Amino acid sequence: MTATLTGPAGRMQIARGLSALRERRGLTQAQVAERAGVSKATVSRYEMWQDRARIRWATVKALADACDASAGERDALVKVAKSQTDGWWVGNSAVPHWMDPLVSFEHEAAYEHVYANTVVPGLLQTRLYALAIHQARELRSSNGEIERMVDARIQRQEILRRDPTLHLWVVLDEAVLRRDVGGRAVMAEQMAHLHEMAQAPNVDIQVLPFTAGAHAAGTGHFVVLGRDDERNPLNSMAVVYIEMRRRGLYLDEAEDVRSYKLTFDYLRSQAADPSASLRLLARVRQELSP
């Protein structure tokens, strides 16, 4: 297990690890609480990653020991708990609090799969396109506030240049290409950027054309983030993010994650392949050129 930020991603890793250890031992939360000398509410809180209270490594150690974890399993969880550092986005007023988990998960995920049906996903937006999006959505925000939001959006894109890389796979509904955001010049630049990013080794972009008709999603924008570690399942993670108006919904139950993964697989099969999608992006860009 690798050390990780003790934000939502780290919390999920700890929560999943402690829950798996308890279930393997066949213990209830009340039994673990009695063994560890803590309250049942504490056990419940440490098994829920959404809780925002500070994680204490001594409590993690006590809970792991109460579940008869091996020294390696216990030390790995404690290592995560001790890495209580905050990312650049924590406390940044330009990053909405409901996006804190998303950015945290991006920093720990090995892959991110996105279905977008209205606008280009944030990780692939140009600055001018992002500015137009924020100006349309943030009607009560000042120009300075909007500029800071755009700065944060662009900074978030640095995740695509990290080592090891994040593999980003995006399925864009053709409606995203046809929606005029910011005017023809902004859209032409955005299409050129998508065409360029689609050729990056860690980015795949497919377009779901109108001609595909009804498709598997049946819903709006969603993101599946994950990291698979077959040698150490406790180091794995998977979560679904569903974008909503001024809030985000996070799903981490195994059945929900499997359902969205399957939906994304169907979308990939219904969309144009990467080569055909590149040609479509080039054609739309050409249509937008003066």
Automatic annotation (TrEMBL):
Pfam families: DUF5753, HTH_31. Residues 18-74 form the HTH cro/C1-type domain. InterPro entries: Cro/C1-type_HTH, DUF5753, Lambda_DNA-bd_dom_sf. CDD domains: HTH_XRE. This is Helix-turn-helix transcriptional regulator. It comes from Streptomyces mordarskii.
